[in-house]
Amino acid sequence: MGASGKAVQGPRRLRRQAAAALALCGALTLTACNGDDGGDAGAAGTGPGASTASPSATAPAPAPTAPGGATPPASPASPKKPSPSASAPGKPKPPAPGPACASKDAVSPNEIAVNRYTPEGGQYSLIVKRGHWGCPVAGGATPFVTVGEETWIPIGEDAAIGVHAPVLSGSANKPITTHELTSWLETHPNKGLVFHYDVNKAGVIVTLGQEEYTS
After folding, report:
1. Which residues pair with 118 in a beta bridge?
2. What is the pTM of this model?
């Protein structure tokens, strides 16, 4: 190759070297710029205006919840104690006592008030009510207080019977027959004359004496 050929290749080589140098400088420049941007981005969190508090340090704690997300129930209020001033119910008052003059026995064992008679069954029977003597009333009379239902007691035809007023005149007992007594009861029913009586083993009246007339 001649001198002119070498002269042409010299400028081309220089241009290639200059282009390579420019390309290398550009690559270095881009790398440096990217490094600066990364540094700036990394330093952005540590700059003067950046906040250093962590989210968990400033956020309020969540309220506790029951399983399933339901709100836990409020604690029940304590039961109200009864007032100390309240008192237990008082005992009922006992019933008033009966009259002091009343008989201790509800029914006198051998006294009856005779109301009527009946001949049913082929035998005379007195229809009576049992009872006891009560308290004196105005005027001094003492009533015979009857209790329960009417009942009947057979009386013998030969019973010893003594009566006074109003069956017979006077206040002393006088004897009469069973037939005379039943005849008077037939015309004077339900007078309730009080008699003391005795019965035999068969339960038939054998003695009948009228007591003080009180009606």
Report:
1. 125
2. 0.52
